[in-house]
Amino acid sequence: MDLFNDANMGGAIFAITALPFVIIVLIFVIIILRARKQTRASQSWSTASGRVLAAYNERRTTTDSNGSSGTAYYPVVHYEYSVNGRRYEGNRIRFGMEMGRGSPKWGQSIVDSYPTGGLIPVYYDPADPSKSVLDRENSSSNRVLGCIVIGIVAVLAITGAFMFVGQGLLSQVMNLVPH
Q: What are the b/e assignments for 40-50, b being 16+ CB within 10 Å?
């Protein structure tokens, strides 16, 4: 069987190869939409006065299967607030996927804006005061995930187009070559 002349086989191979990437795109889209929904909902949340318990730039090191290690820095803010006389604690800065960076500068700039012991506004869900957030803006992780989604979709579209157009052109070329 000649894979180049069998469009159905080529389509099946492309679909099987593309499937993991499509699943990744769907997961990222769900994460983005969920964070946007939470961000929109938080715009109507109540505000309580809170206090920063601790703020620091957490260093996390990971090692891959090849033994290579990488370090990323994540801003962490622990805070407390009271609603109707009941004390709550939180650590969510923004909605979206937690994101670290290779340089401590980015996380440190966030940490510096929440000095330990400082008073801060905390936005909480009036239906469930244990849900809280410090910043009701979209996380930059949503933009990063959006760019990744666009990149994967573009690569799949271009690959698919070249594959199917290429199959037709290659078949025509193969028919011109004497056997």
A: eebeebeebeb
**What is the distance between the alpha carbons of residues 174 and 87, in angstroms, rounded to a whole number?**
75
What gap in Å lies between CA 34 and CA 37, rounded to an integer?
5
Residues 6+ apart with CB under 8 A from 167: 4, 7, 10
- Amino acid making up residue 163: M
Distances (CA, A) of 152 to 12, 18, 140, 159, 165: 19, 10, 19, 10, 20
The predicted-structure confidence for 7-55, as pLDDT tens digits, reads as follows: 566 667 777 888 888 888 888 888 888 888 888 888 899 999 999 999 9
In the chain, the amino acid numbered 112 is: D
pTM of the model: 0.65
Report helix, strand or coil for 165. Answer: helix
**Packed helices 140-176 and 7-42: angle between N→C axes, nearest 10 degrees:** 170
